Every structure is written in structure tokens, then in C-alpha cells.
Amino acid sequence: MAIKFGENRMNVSKSKHFWRTQGECWKRMVTPYIMYLFMSMLLLATQLINIPWLKYFLGTLCILIGAAFNAHLAFNTGVTHFDAYMTGCIHRRNREQGIMSGGDHRPEREYSPWKGFYIGFLIGLPVILFAGLACIPGVGVNQFGRFMLVMFAGFALIPVSWIVGDFGTVPAGYYAYSMLLVILPVLVTGIFYIVGAVVEKRNKRIKEERAQAVLEAAEAAREERLHREQTEEQRRKTLQSKKKKK
Fold first, then answer.
1. Spatial distance between the Cα atoms of 99 and 129, rounded to a whole number of angstroms
2. DSSP 3-state assignment of 159?
3. What is the tens place of the pLDDT at every residue in 143-202?
4. 8 Å CB contact between 11 and 106
5. What's the rounded Cα separation, in Å, for the pair 74 and 80?
6. Is the full-model pTM beyond 0.85?
7. DSSP alpha helices (H): ranges in the chain?
């Protein structure tokens, strides 16, 4: 039964693999988005400060902290996905040799460079959605979009407000500029996802080199011991031969 389960996991149709990959990426975006959301709440609180430079400094710090959490989570995801990729390579190699394997391996969790940027795009998707609604003419939709953008994507809205002024006094079209901040999670997630995979690949290579060095050292020690034993045996036989001659 286990082999059949693994085989099903490794041999799913393209459509199933696509949707499972979508589910994996959506799952990986939830925690980073929550981090941005939490820091956005703090960011909104800092905007009540009447000292401009302090307001900007603390607001920027909140955004950077959110990005730092994002980077950490993306790095770990890159490590996890690269491990899954290496496991998948083993199963695929076994399958080529006629060995049925797979177990509970999930191909949708395997590393691919584009996944990090796609996860970052999903993190920024609420910004695009709510900013788009805020730009639509019509009081109801417009106000709903503004409210949702402030509440759920403040990290993208507030920095733009520092440049164009209070959004309550400017045309609704200026809300579209907040979409530019989507580039923050896209770049942070994409870059650190790749970095995590690269670091994990290097660590695995170092471990393999150390293991190989240990094996080579053990083999060298064994050969030296055998050589020493053979030399000792030859010396003993030579001494015995000399004694017999006497």
C-alpha cells in the first residue's frame, strides 16, 4: 500500500500537479502576509505621531521588520523545498532503475526558482486587489477599497501617502501607486527563497565532502595498519630465519 501511495504521488497528472503546486504556494504565503499585516497595524499607529521625522523613521522600521520576517520565512521555505527536490531526484533515479519508491514525497514541494517570486506576488495580491477597488469610480466601491487597503495592506499604502499627501484629499487614482509596493514582497521572497536553496545545497555539499574525507581517512588508516602488520610479520619471519641459520 505504501508503494502504491508513493507511486500515486510521483505520477500525478499535470493538472493535479498544477493545483497542488498552487495550494503549496498559497499555503506558504499566509504566514509572511500575516507578518506584513501585523507590522502594518503598528505602522498605522506610528502615523499618529506629530513629529514628522520620527513618524517616517518608525514607519520605515515597521516595514523593514515585516520584510525581515518575510526574508526569514522565504529562506526556510527555500531550504525545505530544496530538500524535497533532492528527495525527488532520488525517487526519480530509482524509478529509472525500476525501483518503486516515493513514500509520502510531494513533488509540488520541490524547489524551483520561480516559486519564491510567485509566493511573493501572492503576498502582495491583496494590495493589487484593494488598490484596484479604491481606484474604481463610485463612492461605495471606492470607499470599500480604501478601507480594506488601509486595514489589510497598510505597508503599501502609508509610504505612498508620505509622498502624495493625505489620501483623503487627493484623487482616487493615486491609490494605484500603492501597487508599486508589491515589488517589496516579490523581491524579498524570491531572492531569499533562492538564497535558502543555495545555502542548503552548499551545506549538503560540505557534509558530503566531510563524510568522504572521513571515509578516505578511515581507509588510509586501515591501509597503514595493514602495511604495519605486514611489515611486522616480515620482520618476525626474518628474525626466525636468522635464528634457524645459527
1. 48
2. helix
3. 888 888 888 988 988 888 888 766 555 566 778 888 999 999 999 999 999 999 999 999
4. no
5. 10
6. no
7. 2-10, 14-46, 52-96, 113-134, 139-152, 154-164, 183-245
